[in-house]
Design a protein that fits this description.
7-stranded mixed sheet, 3-stranded antiparallel sheet, about 15% strand, single chain, 14 helices
Length: about 350
């Protein structure tokens, strides 16, 4: 019997639910560039309401959403501050500098996804023609590179205080904000409250096929709309995509707890096999290395792939696994069996 592939490379590999497919087929449509797609308008209004903000804008991706926010908050030659492990810094093609001429400065990222705020404050440039004006601080929730850590509320409030003291805007790369809300037992609105703007994703844990939203005040979103046009993000009858996003928001949030439980199950199983899990597993992401004596290499992930388990080749000595919609406890148990066989062959 051939088993279906278990894909733990990312939660971006999720496929839309049956309810999403039905909603997409039945979506009421219009031209969103004219602001006339009723399904897009409904999704935007729903997202803004759920996050306690005035308005939202549907965009094709989280990377575009983050870039739009940076372009609105900062002019050319101005400065932003972010963590040295931030997705916006490491994995978004240098867009703020390449497109916006924005000067990025980075500070230490701690193991829980928080930043060294004292270090950040020291980087706020004084008002002097020698220095770029500092305009923006970016946080990431959950934090990808530290293993999906949800940011503690007291840290976010401290970051807000810092921004208020220096006239900075505070932006959240909230690609997995919904996971953070489940992990912390808080509403997404409560987590969004301290931020001037957020970019939130529908196509990861919430399993929509495409899309993110930029969220903030009405005046901010009016400027964001201009930047979306500049970047080529204006879509026409985009309601076919927004319809899936509405289902994602209304039906897929509470089930994120299943992904968190499956990630914990995977971490426990790996530890029992002698694997070394790098991070505290609080949401759906874990980084791990093989037992002592086994080299973390692409050969190992290739061996898993031959048996139907997809995990990306290692980076900096660790593999990353991400649980998501479509991965059940049964698939986790089968993944552990595949991993155990491969390590045994490697001689551990």
């Amino acid at each position: 019997m051939t088993h279906p592939t278990i894909d733990l490379r990312s939660d971006t590999v999720t496929l839309p639910s049956p309810a999403m497919r039905r909603a997409m087929a039945a979506a009421e449509l219009g031209d969103d560039v004219y602001g006339e797609d009723p399904t897009v308008n409904r999704l935007q209004a729903m997202t803004a309401e759920r996050l306690g903000k005035e308005a939202a804008l549907f965009v094709p991706s989280g990377t575009m959403g983050n870039l739009i926010a940076q372009l609105v908050h900062c002019r050319r030659g101005e400065q932003l501050i972010a963590g040295d492990q931030a997705h916006t810094v490491l994995y978004e093609a240098g867009g703020s500098a390449a497109v916006g001429g924005i000067h990025p400065r980075t500070v230490t990222t701690f193991a829980d996804g928080t930043l060294d705020l004292a270090e950040a404050e020291a980087l706020v440039a004084p008002e002097n023609p020698h220095f770029p004006r500092t305009k923006l601080l970016i946080l990431e929730n959950t934090h990808n590179r530290t293993g999906g850590q949800p940011l503690p509320l007291d840290f976010v409030e401290a970051a807000r205080t810092l921004c208020d003291a220096h006239g900075l805007a505070l932006h959240c790369d909230g690609a997995r904000l919904w996971n953070a809300a489940i992990a912390l037992g808080e509403t997404a609105e409560r987590l969004a409250q301290p931020f001037d703007s957020l970019s939130v994703c529908l196509s990861k844990g919430l399993a929509a096929p495409v899309g993110s939203l930029v969220v903030g005040r009405k005046a901010f979103i009016a400027e964001a709309l201009r930047e979306r046009k500049l970047l080529g993000g204006g879509m026409r009858q985009a309601g076919v995509l927004a319809a899936a996003g509405i289902v994602a928001l209304t039906e897929m949030q509470t089930r994120l707890a299943d992904d968190h439980n499956n990630a914990a199950r995977l971490a426990e199983g790996l530890a029992a096999l002698g694997y070394r899990v790098r991070n505290a597993v609080t949401t759906n992401i874990l980084f791990f290395a093989p037992p002592e004596g086994v080299v973390p290499s692409a050969a190992l992930s290739d061996a898993w792939a031959r048996e139907g388990l997809l995990i990306s080749p290692p980076s900096h000595g660790h593999f990353r696994a991400v649980t998501h919609y479509g991965i059940s406890a049964r698939e986790i148990d089968r993944a552990l069996q595949i991993i155990e066989r491969a390590v045994r062959v490697q001689g551990a």
